[in-house]
Amino acid sequence: MNRQVRNGSSLGGEHLTDLLVFGFLQHGPSDSFQEELKRLGHTLPTPAGPEEHFEEELQTDGSRCSRFVSEGPDTGSETQEDVIRNIARQLAQIGDVMDQRVPPSLVDHLVRQLRDRSLSEEGRRAHLATAVEQVLQACPRDMEEEKAMLLVTMLLARKVASHTPSLLREVFHTTVGFINQNLLTYVRNLVRNKQALAFCQVTRNLPPNRAVQRSCAGLAKTVRRTRHDEQ
Protein backbone atom coordinates (compact mmCIF):
# COMPACT_ATOMS: atom_id res chain seq x y z
CA MET A 1 0.00 0.00 0.00
CA ASN A 2 1.24 3.47 -0.84
CA ARG A 3 2.43 5.55 2.08
CA GLN A 4 0.59 8.84 2.56
CA VAL A 5 0.42 11.64 5.07
CA ARG A 6 -2.85 12.08 6.94
CA ASN A 7 -3.94 14.73 9.41
CA GLY A 8 -6.87 12.97 11.03
CA SER A 9 -5.06 12.67 14.35
CA SER A 10 -3.14 15.95 14.15
CA LEU A 11 -1.90 17.52 17.36
CA GLY A 12 -2.20 21.12 18.48
CA GLY A 13 0.79 23.41 18.06
CA GLU A 14 1.96 23.10 21.65
CA HIS A 15 1.69 19.32 21.53
CA LEU A 16 3.82 19.27 18.37
CA THR A 17 6.60 20.66 20.55
CA ASP A 18 5.96 18.06 23.28
CA LEU A 19 6.45 15.27 20.77
CA LEU A 20 9.42 16.93 19.06
CA VAL A 21 11.37 17.48 22.30
CA PHE A 22 10.45 14.03 23.60
CA GLY A 23 11.60 12.44 20.34
CA PHE A 24 14.87 14.37 20.47
CA LEU A 25 15.53 13.14 24.02
CA GLN A 26 14.93 9.56 22.93
CA HIS A 27 17.97 9.68 20.65
CA GLY A 28 21.30 10.40 22.25
CA PRO A 29 24.62 8.97 23.39
CA SER A 30 23.46 8.53 26.99
CA ASP A 31 20.78 6.29 28.45
CA SER A 32 21.17 7.64 31.98
CA PHE A 33 17.66 9.12 32.09
CA GLN A 34 15.66 6.45 30.26
CA GLU A 35 13.61 5.47 33.30
CA GLU A 36 12.63 9.09 33.87
CA LEU A 37 11.88 9.46 30.15
CA LYS A 38 9.66 6.41 30.26
CA ARG A 39 7.60 7.86 33.12
CA LEU A 40 7.40 11.20 31.34
CA GLY A 41 6.17 9.52 28.17
CA HIS A 42 3.11 8.17 29.96
CA THR A 43 2.01 11.72 30.82
CA LEU A 44 2.20 13.18 27.33
CA PRO A 45 -1.03 13.79 25.37
CA THR A 46 -1.64 11.52 22.41
CA PRO A 47 -4.29 11.88 19.69
CA ALA A 48 -7.31 9.64 19.52
CA GLY A 49 -6.63 6.66 17.33
CA PRO A 50 -4.75 3.35 17.55
CA GLU A 51 -3.72 2.47 21.07
CA GLU A 52 -0.06 3.10 21.80
CA HIS A 53 2.26 1.78 24.45
CA PHE A 54 5.73 2.69 25.55
CA GLU A 55 8.64 0.34 25.19
CA GLU A 56 12.44 0.33 25.01
CA GLU A 57 14.67 -1.14 22.34
CA LEU A 58 18.36 -1.91 22.47
CA GLN A 59 20.43 0.11 20.00
CA THR A 60 23.44 -1.23 18.12
CA ASP A 61 25.79 0.77 20.35
CA GLY A 62 24.35 -0.81 23.49
CA SER A 63 22.30 2.19 24.56
CA ARG A 64 18.55 2.04 25.00
CA CYS A 65 16.00 4.10 23.12
CA SER A 66 12.45 4.55 24.38
CA ARG A 67 9.62 4.85 21.88
CA PHE A 68 5.86 4.75 21.47
CA VAL A 69 4.52 1.73 19.60
CA SER A 70 1.10 1.66 17.99
CA GLU A 71 -1.03 -1.41 18.66
CA GLY A 72 -3.61 -0.54 16.04
CA PRO A 73 -3.79 -1.95 12.51
CA ASP A 74 -0.98 -0.96 10.13
CA THR A 75 -2.60 1.25 7.51
CA GLY A 76 0.66 1.99 5.73
CA SER A 77 0.08 5.72 6.18
CA GLU A 78 2.45 8.26 7.68
CA THR A 79 0.86 10.24 10.50
CA GLN A 80 1.78 13.69 11.69
CA GLU A 81 3.39 12.03 14.71
CA ASP A 82 5.57 9.93 12.38
CA VAL A 83 6.73 13.10 10.63
CA ILE A 84 7.59 14.78 13.93
CA ARG A 85 9.50 11.76 15.19
CA ASN A 86 11.50 11.63 11.97
CA ILE A 87 12.34 15.32 12.32
CA ALA A 88 13.35 14.76 15.96
CA ARG A 89 15.64 11.89 14.98
CA GLN A 90 17.32 13.93 12.26
CA LEU A 91 17.81 16.90 14.59
CA ALA A 92 19.22 14.60 17.27
CA GLN A 93 21.82 13.32 14.80
CA ILE A 94 22.90 16.91 14.09
CA GLY A 95 22.87 17.53 17.82
CA ASP A 96 25.32 14.69 18.32
CA VAL A 97 27.77 16.51 16.06
CA MET A 98 27.26 19.79 17.93
CA ASP A 99 27.51 18.16 21.35
CA GLN A 100 31.15 19.13 21.89
CA ARG A 101 30.29 22.80 21.40
CA VAL A 102 28.52 22.85 24.78
CA PRO A 103 31.03 23.51 27.62
CA PRO A 104 30.55 21.21 30.63
CA SER A 105 30.83 24.23 32.91
CA LEU A 106 27.83 25.81 31.21
CA VAL A 107 25.78 22.64 31.78
CA ASP A 108 26.87 22.51 35.43
CA HIS A 109 25.79 26.12 35.93
CA LEU A 110 22.43 25.57 34.24
CA VAL A 111 21.79 22.49 36.37
CA ARG A 112 22.45 24.48 39.56
CA GLN A 113 20.02 27.16 38.40
CA LEU A 114 17.26 24.69 37.50
CA ARG A 115 17.63 22.99 40.88
CA ASP A 116 16.39 26.16 42.56
CA ARG A 117 12.84 25.21 43.53
CA SER A 118 11.96 28.83 44.25
CA LEU A 119 12.34 29.75 40.57
CA SER A 120 9.22 30.51 38.58
CA GLU A 121 8.77 28.90 35.18
CA GLU A 122 9.54 32.28 33.63
CA GLY A 123 12.79 32.37 35.60
CA ARG A 124 13.71 28.90 34.35
CA ARG A 125 13.10 29.92 30.76
CA ALA A 126 15.23 33.03 31.28
CA HIS A 127 18.17 30.93 32.50
CA LEU A 128 17.72 28.53 29.58
CA ALA A 129 17.62 31.48 27.15
CA THR A 130 20.92 32.78 28.52
CA ALA A 131 22.55 29.36 28.11
CA VAL A 132 21.18 29.00 24.58
CA GLU A 133 22.60 32.37 23.60
CA GLN A 134 26.04 31.44 24.93
CA VAL A 135 26.12 28.18 22.95
CA LEU A 136 24.82 29.86 19.79
CA GLN A 137 27.90 32.07 19.76
CA ALA A 138 29.96 28.96 19.06
CA CYS A 139 27.63 27.61 16.35
CA PRO A 140 28.38 27.83 12.62
CA ARG A 141 27.19 31.14 11.22
CA ASP A 142 25.95 29.47 8.04
CA MET A 143 23.24 27.55 9.91
CA GLU A 144 19.73 28.99 9.80
CA GLU A 145 19.23 31.02 12.98
CA GLU A 146 15.94 29.43 14.06
CA LYS A 147 17.19 25.94 13.30
CA ALA A 148 20.33 26.54 15.34
CA MET A 149 18.29 27.89 18.26
CA LEU A 150 15.94 24.91 18.18
CA LEU A 151 18.85 22.47 18.08
CA VAL A 152 20.78 24.13 20.88
CA THR A 153 17.69 24.40 23.11
CA MET A 154 16.92 20.68 22.84
CA LEU A 155 20.59 19.75 23.08
CA LEU A 156 20.88 21.64 26.36
CA ALA A 157 17.80 19.85 27.68
CA ARG A 158 19.37 16.51 26.81
CA LYS A 159 22.66 17.40 28.45
CA VAL A 160 20.92 18.62 31.63
CA ALA A 161 18.92 15.38 31.79
CA SER A 162 22.08 13.34 31.25
CA HIS A 163 23.86 15.28 33.98
CA THR A 164 20.98 15.10 36.48
CA PRO A 165 18.20 12.66 35.49
CA SER A 166 15.97 13.86 38.33
CA LEU A 167 15.63 17.20 36.50
CA LEU A 168 14.26 15.62 33.33
CA ARG A 169 10.63 16.58 33.91
CA GLU A 170 11.48 20.17 34.84
CA VAL A 171 13.89 20.74 31.96
CA PHE A 172 11.46 19.09 29.52
CA HIS A 173 8.61 21.45 30.40
CA THR A 174 10.93 24.46 30.50
CA THR A 175 12.29 23.56 27.05
CA VAL A 176 8.81 23.03 25.58
CA GLY A 177 7.69 26.37 27.02
CA PHE A 178 10.74 28.16 25.63
CA ILE A 179 10.23 26.70 22.14
CA ASN A 180 6.50 27.48 22.17
CA GLN A 181 7.30 31.04 23.19
CA ASN A 182 10.04 31.65 20.63
CA LEU A 183 9.98 29.04 17.87
CA LEU A 184 6.47 27.65 17.55
CA THR A 185 5.88 29.08 14.07
CA TYR A 186 9.18 27.62 12.89
CA VAL A 187 8.28 24.18 14.30
CA ARG A 188 4.85 24.27 12.64
CA ASN A 189 6.38 25.22 9.28
CA LEU A 190 9.03 22.52 9.65
CA VAL A 191 6.37 19.86 10.16
CA ARG A 192 4.12 21.26 7.42
CA ASN A 193 6.94 21.24 4.85
CA LYS A 194 7.95 17.69 5.74
CA GLN A 195 4.35 16.52 5.39
CA ALA A 196 3.98 18.25 2.03
CA LEU A 197 7.18 16.67 0.73
CA ALA A 198 6.00 13.23 1.89
CA PHE A 199 2.71 13.80 0.05
CA CYS A 200 4.54 14.70 -3.15
CA GLN A 201 6.61 11.53 -2.87
CA VAL A 202 3.35 9.55 -2.82
CA THR A 203 1.93 11.29 -5.91
CA ARG A 204 4.77 9.91 -8.04
CA ASN A 205 3.04 6.52 -7.89
CA LEU A 206 -0.41 7.89 -8.78
CA PRO A 207 -1.99 8.81 -12.14
CA PRO A 208 -0.84 12.23 -13.41
CA ASN A 209 -2.69 15.24 -12.01
CA ARG A 210 -1.62 18.65 -13.29
CA ALA A 211 -2.77 20.61 -10.25
CA VAL A 212 -0.89 18.34 -7.85
CA GLN A 213 2.16 18.31 -10.09
CA ARG A 214 2.24 22.13 -10.21
CA SER A 215 1.90 22.33 -6.42
CA CYS A 216 4.68 19.84 -5.84
CA ALA A 217 6.94 21.52 -8.36
CA GLY A 218 6.45 24.83 -6.58
CA LEU A 219 7.14 23.23 -3.23
CA ALA A 220 10.31 21.61 -4.56
CA LYS A 221 11.57 25.00 -5.76
CA THR A 222 10.84 26.52 -2.36
CA VAL A 223 12.69 23.74 -0.56
CA ARG A 224 15.69 24.02 -2.90
CA ARG A 225 15.76 27.79 -2.39
CA THR A 226 15.60 27.35 1.38
CA ARG A 227 18.42 24.81 1.36
CA HIS A 228 20.51 27.09 -0.84
CA ASP A 229 19.98 29.99 1.59
CA GLU A 230 21.09 27.79 4.49
CA GLN A 231 24.36 26.85 2.77
What does this structure look like?
- The structure is a single chain.
- This protein has 231 residues and is mainly alpha-helical.
- 62% of the residues lie in helices and 8% in strands.
- The chain has helices spanning 13-26, 34-41, 80-98, 104-114, 121-136, 145-163, 168-182, 184-203, 210-230; strands at residues 5-6, 52-58, 64-70, 78-79.
- The strands form 2 sheets. The protein has a two-stranded parallel sheet. The protein has a two-stranded antiparallel ribbon with strand order 2-3.
- Helix 3 (80-98) packs across helix 6 (145-163).
- The longest helix has 21 residues, at 210-230.
Largest sheet: 2 strands, parallel
Apparent shape: globular
Percent strand equals 5-15%
| Total DSSP E strands | 4
- Quaternary state of this entry equals single chain
Write the H/E string, N to C: EHHEEEHHHHHHH
Cα separation of the termini: 36 Å
SS-based class? mainly alpha
Strand order of the largest sheet: 1-4
Q: Give the overall average pLDDT.
A: 76
In the predicted model, the low-confidence regions spanning at least 5 consecutive residues are 1-10, 48-76, 202-209
Please tell me how large the radius of gyration is.
Answer: 19 Å
Helix content: 55-70%
Total number of helical segments? 9
Write the layout of secondary structure elements.
Blueprint: E1 5-6, H1 13-26, H2 34-41, E2 52-58, E3 64-70, E4 78-79, H3 80-98, H4 104-114, H5 121-136, H6 145-163, H7 168-182, H8 184-203, H9 210-230
Parallel strand pairs: 1-4
Antiparallel strand pairs: 2-3
Quick rundown:
By secondary structure, this protein is mainly α. It has helices at residues 13-26, 34-41, 80-98, 104-114, 121-136, 145-163, 168-182, 184-203, 210-230, and strands at residues 5-6, 52-58, 64-70, 78-79.
